[in-house]
Amino acid sequence: MRPLLIVATGTPPPHIRARHGTYADWFLHAMRWPRAQARVVQVDRDEPLPSPREIAGAVITGSAAMVSERAAWSEHTAAWLRAAMDADLPLFGVCYGHHLLAHALGGRVDYHPQGREIGTQTIELLAADAALHALAPLPERFPAHTTHLQSVLETPHGARVLARSAHDAHHILAYGARAFSTQFHPEFSTAVMRALILRRAADLRAEAYDLDALLRGVCPTPWARRLLRGFARLCRGEVAASTSSDTRAAA
Known about the structure:
Layout: E1 4-8, H1 14-20, H2 23-31, E2 38-42, E3 57-60, H3 72-86, E4 91-94, H4 96-104, E5 108-111, E6 117-125, H5 130-135, E7 141-148, E8 150-154, E9 160-164, E10 172-175, E11 179-182, H6 190-199, H7 201-206, H8 211-217, H9 222-236
Parallel strand pairs: 1-2, 1-3, 3-4, 4-11
Antiparallel strand pairs: 5-8, 6-7, 6-9, 9-10, 10-11
Helix pairs in contact: 3-4
């Protein structure tokens, strides 16, 4: 079987990495994907990406970088994503990966006008979608971990907007039947979410967040994680990618 590609667009802060591992570790654990059957490419260090035809699928991780900065490595990865879409490769972008995929396909990404979203938030499904349902049947509302300053402000032509939060209008986007992205972080554990909140404690207090309330609100997010496990099954060929979608607005 061809390997799963983890397109790593950054690394966790050193003290978080020392305790909780790398972005690749988080995704592979959440997806229950063996490390021996994965390939990790650190694109922010200019490591070369393989041909889309050499891999089973690709996950594009989060990052401390910003897509709007248009770094050379990021723009190179965006071009690779366009080629991967042309090859019908299964793709799953998260946070920075969500932004980069939207940018690569013609959307607009920038700082959210209302600032930061962080902590465990309620995600609301907006539409019944056959391709998303094939990955993981989701309830109308479910919790997911978030931390971001930038957002997809304008979606690419043809993108399906499938979920939102009270803060962000574009929490799940889908492109065709085999490419998905989430603003929220299905790979985060509760321990990682708490660690990231504490790391931003000074900034959050300065922005008038209630730090204790954020920490109390952190809870498990099993529904969000099911998306990654469904994507793993899609990459293995265990799930038939739907070729049609029902985009009726959810009641």
